[in-house]
Each structure stands twice: as C-alpha cells, then as structure tokens.
Amino acid sequence: MKKETKTKILFFVITVGSVCMLTAVVTDHWAVLSPRVEHVNTTCEAAHFGLWKLCKKHIYIEDEELIGKVCGPISLPGEMNCSYFRHFTPGEDSEIFEVKTQREYNISAAAIAIFSLVFMILGTLCVLGSLRKGKDYLYKPAGMFFAFAGLCAIISVEVMRQSVKRMIESEETIWIEYYYSWSFACACTGFVLLLLSGIGLLLVSMPHMPRNPWETCMDAEPEQI
User: Fold this and answer.
1) Chain centre distance of CA 192
2) In 3-state terms, what secondary structure has residue 84?
3) How open is the CA angle 156-161-166, to the nearest 5 degrees?
4) Which among 42, 122, 170, 224 is least buried, having the fewest CB atoms inside 10 angstroms?
5) CA 225 from chain center: how many Å?
C-alpha cells in the first residue's frame, strides 16, 4: 500500500476519533444514575451527567410492581432540571457536588479532557501543515499529539468511572444503580481511534526500511508516493 493511501486512511480515522472525543466532551450522557423506587403515586429522581452538567429527571411512578426496583428508564417522560457544576458556575444549584472528593474527581476529568482537545488541535495543525509538498516530517509530531490526545481521553474516562463509583457508594446520594451511556462510549471510541491513528502516523513517518540486510536506510530506494 502506498504511503499516500495509508495517510489518507489515517486522516479519516483521526477525523472520526476527534469527532467522537469532541462529542463526549460537550455532551452530558456519560453516566445514568437511578435510585430505588420505594413508593407509588410519587416521583423518583433519576439523573445523567457529563463533565460539565448534571441533569435530574423526576419520573412519576404509579405501578406498584416497580416498588423495590430502580427508577427509570430515564427516557420516560418527566420534569427535567439541569445545572452546571458549582466549580464552573458558582452559585448554581448542584448539591451532589458538595461532596469534596466528588468535586475533585470531576475537576480532574474535565481538565484532562481539555488537554486531550488541545493535543487534538495541535495534531490537526501539524496535519494541515503536512499537506504542503515536502512537509512530511510533520507526520511525526502530529502522530505524537494524537497519541497523547488518546491517552488523555482514556485517563479522563477512568477518572469519570471512579467518579461514578464514588457517587454510588457515597451516603450523600440517593442513587444505587448506574450504567454508562453514549457519551462515555464516544470517549472510549475516541481513545482507541486517536491512539491507534497517532501510532500509525508515527510508523508512516519512519524512513523506508531497507529490502536487503546489507543496505542501510539511506541506501534504500525512496518509497513511491
């Protein structure tokens, strides 16, 4: 396969990975939390949240068979109330983030996700610069930046996973069940695609390997583009 074809495939994978990671950062469906239903003819409070915002939905329960089960699914109709986390917009209502350890987890996850976006932007600038003839050497820094973006993505995912775990285990919350939603899946997909495409660009940027053992890299024929 020619080098030009390889780079086009890698650029496509990078684009998909970047879109997935950006979608994960700006949306708030990383995890869905549910309490246990204890009474009928009243509402239960399910929630979903992301890096920046927590949304609570009050779902009306009237079926006695649901007693003892978890509230939800969150797709059921109900009154939705969303608020940005207190550490980003002081003064707004977000009681759950009064828990100190929870606040620290989300600040860390958001900061690491921003680093991932910064690396993605730097990698994109290198890719755009490499499109000019004779600028193939920019593949190497681009690959490093996208690989770093992927690593930051998985670190942010792990921090958020620990954050959800602490929310469920905390006595300050009413939620007992959780599952990871599509924003979390986007972040995981972004991690895989960005890391693999970054490594791929690094491999593409390496000099053409010699065909014979007695050749050096300098003696080998240049790869046709």
Assistant:
1) 10
2) strand
3) 125
4) 224
5) 35
Q: How far is residue 225's CA from residue 222's CA, in Å, rounded to a whole number?
A: 9
List, for residues 131-166, the tens digit of each pLDDT value: 777 677 888 899 999 999 999 999 999 998 888 888
Query: How does pLDDT run across 82-94, given as a tens digit for each residue?
Result: 777 654 444 444 4
141 preceded by cis ω (within 30°)?
no
CA–CA gap between residue 135 and residue 70 (Å, rounded): 57
The token duo for 113 is: 């996700």
pLDDT tens by residue, 20-50: 999 999 988 888 888 777 777 777 777 888 8
CB 72 within 8 A of CB 34: yes
Please tell me the distance from the alpha carbon of residue 42 to that of residue 126, in angstroms, as a whole number: 56
Tokens 């329960």 belong to 61
- What is the spatial distance between Cα 194 and Cα 83, in angstroms, rounded to a whole number? 31
